[in-house]
Amino acid sequence: MNAEPSPTPPPAALGRARSDRARQVADVLRGQVLAGDLTGVLPPERMLIAEFGVTRNTIREALDLLRADGLVTRRPGIGTVVCGVKYPHGLHRLAGLAEVLREHGTVTNEVRAAGPITAPAQVAAQLRLDRGAEVTYVERLRRLGGEPLSLDLTYLPADVGAPLLERDLAGNDIFALLEEIHGQRLGVAEVGMEAVNADPDSATVLEVPRGAALLRWERLTHFASGRPIDLEYIRFRGDRLTLRARLDRLPA
Amino acid sequence: MNAEPSPTPPPAALGRARSDRARQVADVLRGQVLAGDLTGVLPPERMLIAEFGVTRNTIREALDLLRADGLVTRRPGIGTVVCGVKYPHGLHRLAGLAEVLREHGTVTNEVRAAGPITAPAQVAAQLRLDRGAEVTYVERLRRLGGEPLSLDLTYLPADVGAPLLERDLAGNDIFALLEEIHGQRLGVAEVGMEAVNADPDSATVLEVPRGAALLRWERLTHFASGRPIDLEYIRFRGDRLTLRARLDRLPA
User: Fold this and answer.
1) Mutate which of B16, B28, B140 to test chain A, going by most A C-beta atoms within 10 A?
2) pLDDT at B15
3) Chain B residues close to A228, C-beta within 8 Å
4) Does ipTM top 0.85?
5) Taking all residues of chain B, what is their mean pLDDT, rounded to a whole number?
6) How far is A249 from chain B (nearest CA, A)?
7) Which phi and psi angles does A190 have, rounded to 5°?
8) Binning pLDDT at 50, 70 and 90, where does residue A90 land?
9) CB burial readout B229-243, b (16+ within 10 A) else e
10) Burial class of A77 by CB neighbour count within 10 A (0 to 12, 13 to 18, 19+)
11) What pLDDT is attached to residue B13?
12) Measured between alpha carbons, how far is residue B175 from residues A34, B97, B99, B156, B185 in Å?
C-alpha cells in the first residue's frame, strides 16, 4: 500500500516457494478475520497483491488455505466472503461454557447419559476416592445457537454429583449447579489441552468431517476447599473456538 | 477391580452405543498415558474388561482410538504398548520453546527465511508501526530432539529485529536473544490458540500426514515497557504437545 519505491523487499519475498508465501499471507489475513478486523467481502485480489507484494496465484493459494479452514467462502459475482465465526474462550478464569459464551448466544445441553457408575481406577485416583467407589457420570453434547460445540464426559463423586441428576442439566452449566447445590465456590482447575483429529463417531456427534481438528481438554476441577470434584474430558470443535490467554514473562 | 457385587452399574454402562462406551474408556486410558501413569505395555485386555465393565470388542475399539492418535501401538507377541510422547507446555508464564522444553531435549531451529520486508497493514497495526514500515521477518522450523515440533513465522519492528540477523538463530530462542540484545525484559503476550487441520504444505514441512491436527497460535509479545515487538504465527504439531494451565474460579 506504500506507493513509494523502497529497497525493502515486499512482505512475502525472500525468495521462497509459492506455498511458503501463501502460508505467510494466509496467516496475516486469518489474524484479521479472527480479530474481527476483516468482515464481509475481502478486499479485491489486486489490493491484496499490492499489499503483500505477491502474485495473483499466491493470493489465490492463500485464500484456498482460509477456505479449507472454513473461514471464508467464494460467492459468485461478489468475491471472497468471511463466513467462519469463532468464539473466544478466555483462559484467565475458570468458568462454565454458558458463562463464557453468554454474549455470543445460548448454550443448550443434550444429555446423552447420566447416572451412577463404578469409577475406573484412574478416575477414582484423580477424585481421591476409594477404588471401586461410585461416581456420577454425565455425558453432554453442548450446543451454541443450536450447533454442536463440544462433547463433555464428566465424572463426579457420588455425594457431589447425584443431586445434579434432579436438576435441569439441559439448561445449566454443571459448574453453576454445583455451586448452588453445595453452597461452595469452585476453586482451581488443572487443564491439559491438545489438538486431535476427530475419530469417526465423535465427528458424527459433533457434526464435523471425519478427522476434523478438535481441541481436547482434560480438566480436573476442585471446590475452593481443595477437594477434587469434577473430572471432565471435553472435545471442542476446532472450527468454533479460539482460546485466549495472556502470558506474563515474570511469574506472578 | 472391586470384586464385591454392587448395585452400581459398571463404568461404561448406562445403555449406550458401543462407540460411546469405547470413547469413554479411551478418554480415561488416554489421561493415564498423558500423565505418565501408564507406560510400557498396557494391562491385558481381560483386566481392562474387568475394570471398565465392557466387552472385549469395546476395549479393542477404545485401543483403536488411542492407536489412531499415535499414543499406543500393537506389538505382536507383546501387546499394546505406549509409544506417544507428548511434551507439556505450561501456560503459566511467557517463555521461549527451548526454555519451556529444557528438561525434554534440545530445541534446534532451521531458519527458512530471515530478512527485512515491508510490513503488511495488519502486521504494522499490531506492532504499532507506520503503514509500509520495514519489519524483520524470520521463519523457522523448530525441532525437539531432531523431530519437527513447530513452524514459526515471526515479525519484529526493524530496530528490534535487525540485530537478530547477526545472531545464532539456529541455536537460540528469539525471546532470549531479544532480552540480551536490547537489555530489556519481555513483558506480557496475548495469545490466541486454535486447533486446525494441517494444509498439505505445512504437513510436509512438519512431517505429519495431511490434515493432521495442529495447535495454531497467534502471539503478540511486548517488551516490559509495553511496546509490542514480536508478532508470531505458530503451528505446533498436535501429536507432540499438551498445553497445561491452571484456571482460578475467582479473578486474581
Assistant:
1) B28
2) 66
3) none
4) yes
5) 91
6) 4
7) -100, 130
8) confident
9) bbbbbbbbbbbbbbb
10) exposed
11) 61
12) 25, 9, 10, 11, 9
State which amino acid sits at residue B206: L
Most trustworthy range by pLDDT among A6-10, A65-69, A120-124, A156-160: A156-160
* pLDDT of amino acid A13: 61
B214 beta partners: B196, B237
CB atoms within 10 A of CB B27: 24
Please check whether residue B56 is in contact with residue B45, taking contact to mean a CB–CB distance below 8 angstroms: yes
Q: Do A112 and B16 touch (CB under 8 A)?
A: yes
**A-proximal residues of B, 154-183, CB under 8 Å:** none
Residue numbers of chain B with a pLDDT score lower than 50? 1-5
Give the pLDDT confidence score for residue B159 in this predicted structure: 97
Q: Which three cell numbers stand for residue B161?
A: 529485529
Q: How far apart are CA B147 and CA B144, in angstroms?
A: 5
Residues of A in contact with B85 (CB under 8 A): none
Show residues of chain B in contact with A186, CB under 8 Å. Answer: 249
